[in-house]
Amino acid sequence: MSVREVLGEEPEVAMAEERYRVIGEILSKVFRGARPLTLSDLLDEAFLNRYLGIPIFLTLWWALFRFTFDVSAPLSDLIDIIFSRLGEFASSIIGNEWWSAFVSDAICGGLGGVLVFIPPIFFLFFGLALLEDSGYLARAAFVVDKILRPFGLQGRSFIPLLLGFGCNIPGVMATRTIPSERDRILTICVNPLITCSARLPVYVLIAGAVLGAYASMAVFTMYLLSIVLALLMALIFKALIPYFRRGRRAPFILELPNYARPTLRSTLTHMYERGILFLRKAGTIIFLGIIVVWLLSSHPWGAPLDQSYIATLGRWLEPLFRPLGFDWRGAVALFFGFIAKEIVVGTFAVFFGLGEEAEIEEVQRSIVELGVFTPLTGFAFMAFTLLYIPCLATVGIIYRETNSIKWTLFTVIYGLILAYLIALLIVVIGGLMGLG
Amino acid sequence: MAEALRLNRGIAIYAAFLGVLYLIIGLMEFLSGLTPHLGELSPWWMPRDIFSGLSALVIGLLYIASSTSWRRYESMGYLLVATLLSAIFAVLYLLIAGANGLDSLIVGEEWSWMEDISRPEIWLLLPSLPPLILSWRMAMRLKPEVPTSEA
């Protein structure tokens, strides 16, 4: 007979209940009268309210989201401009054409591409440190735990998942707040399915080009699909992968700390400790990735992009994507998108000879005129973009956070398979329904 | 102690007024963001922002909850959190306005500062200040000192 059967409940829960019963007994002997109300009691009336608790949590998350991405934007732009000027300066003083392009596009462009992520990362961790040090983050986990539990996730998974809507990198990094290793890995595995802000321009481009009046609905569907599939995959992984089923699921016991006023020193220290990891870890991976893409897209040296190695790769990949209705341009755009989703729109622009800074309407017009996508294959392309790995930096962060090549590969491969299957399903079902 | 924390009728009515104001603003922002047609009809200073609209609705509901439970000590909790969220959003939108201004200087694009600083959430902080100060003072009577976190 197990301890659980003897106690009639989880041992951890029984121990916690007993601990607080003893504390209550001691307090009743040493204190007279009712326990005085504290500020934490008052705030918890609202923050842990059955009906308002979750809306308050979502409101605070929205504030954190805006703080992370909107307030940090000028600093990201400043870094971007500094590195593009540095690139221009380097190309003006280096005589050799290849070295000039390498230093300005690959080195300066690559470094700039990494460093623009620093402001939102640091702002995010500043905001998270404020919430954590104030004692609210523990309440947030408590509030959403009941919703996520049926899907095999826990309350602390919610913040990493929600942060993923901004960027999957801080989303994956935020899983550090989850103490259970299995729950942490599961949250990391499904985090890339949350549609990050970098994917939005791709949706807007394709939906605006081929879906006409249904464009907004199609974009909204991507967000909905993102949430549904993340929860569904968590449920499936939990059911099918022995690692996530190994042992008994620990009950979610959380001692709620008193609310506290965060100190600037403590908040800045937490922000620095977590944020600096991004520089050390992801920086090297995305930087190297960008250099590799540059080498592939600019060689053979002097050849136009459609004759480069990357285009050759696209044509090689084309048969694989043909069932989905994507030509070699779609395949190459998805390949570039593996490095960073921001590159997809620019890639199409380059293919149409419009340059990377082209207006989105020009690119959309070319997509329609050249028949790159039908409404159905365009929608399938959007779904594929949503579901395969967000960017190389996310892969790097997943590797660093799981410290496992197995989980990293698993996340990349299942994402690709899921993206392919869902896109194929869209094309097949849509085709059977006569949509095209 | 709990008895001493009840809101008086005047504050409860004021909280209800603020709640209704936030609910109206939130609903307008939400509907303007949801349907382009309504967005065109709404005034220029009204942001078309679904999630900010929902956030304003939550603040409004907290003020309403505070006023409807004014005879109980919980009302103080609702009022505290409502005013806290009002302050957070006002400061946030001011920061965003500042960031947009800075960004326009850096990138060299035009900045519509009127649009940024005319957000209702910024201006609603002013009427939220009296209950914020009052509820904070009352809450501070509970504990002489608020603990601070250390690194």
Brief summary:
By secondary structure, chain A is an all-alpha fold. Among the domains of chain A are: 3-36; 273-432, no CATH class.
Question: Can you describe what's shown?
Answer:
- The complex is a heterodimer of chains A (436) and B (151).
- Chain A has 436 residues and is mostly helical.
- Among the domains of chain A are: 3-36; 273-432, no CATH class.
- Chain A has 22 helices and no strands.
- Chain B contains 7 helices and no strands.
- Chain A binds chain B through residues 36-39, 41-47, 49, 52, 55-56, 58-60, 62-63, 66-67, 70-74, 77-78, 81, 133-134, 258-263, 265-266, 269-270, and chain B through 1-2, 5, 51-52, 54-55, 58-59, 61-62, 65, 73-74, 76-78, 80-82, 85, 88-89, 92, 95-96, 98-100, 102-103, 106-107, 139-140, 142-143, 146-151.
Average the pLDDT over all residues of chain B and give the rounded result.
83
* Arithmetic mean of pLDDT of chain A: 83
Strand content of chain A: under 5%
Low-confidence stretches of chain A: none
> Number of DSSP helices of chain B?
7
The topology string of helices and strands of chain B comes to HHHHHHH
The number of helical runs of chain A is 22
Broad structural category of chain A: mainly alpha
Helix content of chain A: over 70%
Number of E-state strands of chain A: 0
Major sheet of chain A, described briefly? none
Question: How would you classify the quaternary structure?
Answer: heterodimer
Low-confidence stretches of chain B: 144-151
How much of the sequence lies in strands of chain B comes to under 5%
Helix content of chain B: over 70%
Number of strands of chain B: 0
Principal-axes shape call of chain A:
globular
The ordered string of helix (H) and strand (E) elements of chain A is HHHHHHHHHHHHHHHHHHHHHH
